[in-house]
DNA sequence: TTGCTTACTGCACGAGCGTTCAGTTATGCT
DNA sequence: AGCATAACTGAACGCTCGTGCAGTAAGCAA
């Protein structure tokens, strides 16, 4: 019989997930044992198997739900394709930076632990990842077609921009010199320049 | 007594290193066992301890010599600081892309396996890494001071550019649509735009 | 041939791994 | 109060891990 939400079992399920995310982000999937995760949660190792069939599924579920959440969060605030490419790019970059800053651990894991996925699981995560990359690719293509972005190679620019944007999660630390919104603003400028948009960012003394 | 170079022991030492690099790049440090490395080399696990005091040192030596090689390779072809910032940046980017394409495994390891280093070893690798980032930071600062680069934040631009450039190692595959030199050329254009250089890349129909 | 050194094997050690499961306790419904 | 079920323990399974070490085979100088 299904339990009411808010029951102790459900809370533990969430605790397991979060302990796993924290530990894997810190030490890496292969270096973290089920016993370590259990200790963090405050249970014995065997109890974890009430919430996951095995260690591999634990990783897969973290990565899969991260990617799905990323995609559906974007769907929620994606602008229509009738909007100007510059504005669409700005929206995408702001979304990406904020999301990646607020969920650093998940993001870190989901591109560090790809090689610890079983082949089948890897294929599925790659599919979702490509879907997300295509969001940016489509915006850049649209801008190029409309002549407002000027790039030598759209595919390379897409990969370069994704790497640049995602990189924020490797150096951002809470309480640093810049807040999330400052950083997002900087990345928006940089992305527009990278895309070859005709947007002078600053008044430049010639 | 020291052995002559080219002896069988030295060959094995190199084979151990290369097997370790290949396997760690593929599966991750924690997921690779000494027995796997030994099998790849064609010896028993115990024999590895003739070439490394322990597993941790094996990782550290790979990362340290990679960083030192990266830095000294750059020193060999670094332009003087009297050269124009645009030309210095071009030189740096071309070097970086070529280097990262030709040594994908080492590069991949050296930013994926940082968290598997012991604290002392981590500090040392971070020091070398920062030295390399400072190379780019100095070029960008110089360009900003001379007014040929226009950036909102030099530090953020440095981190963004490094992430963008290093990202090439995650998607480049031998025999793809573009060769290393094509890719380097694209990254040079993108870097100049990112730095806000006044260099129109293409003739643009307005 | 003898003797020294290098390169390596083969086995062992204790520890920890992922996972299973019979048994125990806690919880909430009737 | 009684009972079903959920939540969890604690011990065990077979296995692999990093590492140490006595012993051995091969190469070479004298």
Automatic annotation (TrEMBL), chains A, B:
Residue span(s) of domain HTH tetR-type: 10-70
Pfam families according to UniProt: TetR_C_24, TetR_N
Keyword Transcription regulation: yes
DNA-binding region, residue intervals: 33-52
Entry keyword tRNA processing: no
GO molecular-function terms, A-Z: DNA-binding transcription factor activity; transcription cis-regulatory region binding
Keyword list, A-Z: DNA-binding, Transcription, Transcription regulation
Protein's name in the database: AcrR family transcriptional regulator
